[in-house]
Amino acid sequence: MRVLSLLLLCAIAFLCYDMYAGRNGYLSYQEASAELELQKQRAQLLNRRYQAAQDELNDLKQGNAAIEELARSELGLIKEGEVFYRVIGGGQTGHGQ
């Protein structure tokens, strides 16, 4: 009987050790959780960098369109192959001039 209880005690001790420090045990779980948290932080950083790059690209695309519009309206610039028409305003009828 004493040998049997010693064997059961050893088996319970081994199972407790295996649950805590063994493969797929509590310590492995803690390490995997820490690694997962680190990877989530890296992913968030990369997502923020990606979004910043996308925003900058959109600003550059819209900025070029805005620059082109200003050059056309303020400086009268035209693209190659375009025909330029100048409309001279003077449509006011002579009441009080």
Largest sheet: none
Low-pLDDT parts are none
Q: What is the element string, with H for helices and E for strands? A: HH
Specify the overall morphology: rod-shaped
Number of domains: 1
How would you name the oligomeric state of the polypeptide chains in this document?
single chain
Distance linking N and C termini: 124 Å
How large is the share of residues in beta strands? Answer: under 5%
Mean pLDDT: 84
Give the number of helices: 2
Q: Could you tell me the radius of gyration in angstroms?
A: 38 Å
- Helical percent range? over 70%
Number of E-state strands: 0
Describe this structure in a few short sentences.
By secondary structure, this protein is an all-alpha fold. Helix content is 72%, strand content 0%.
Sum up the structure in keywords:
rod-shaped; 72% helix; 97 residues; mainly alpha; single chain
Describe the protein in words.
The protein is mostly helical. Helix content is 72%, strand content 0%. It has one domain. The model has no long low-confidence stretch (mean pLDDT 84).
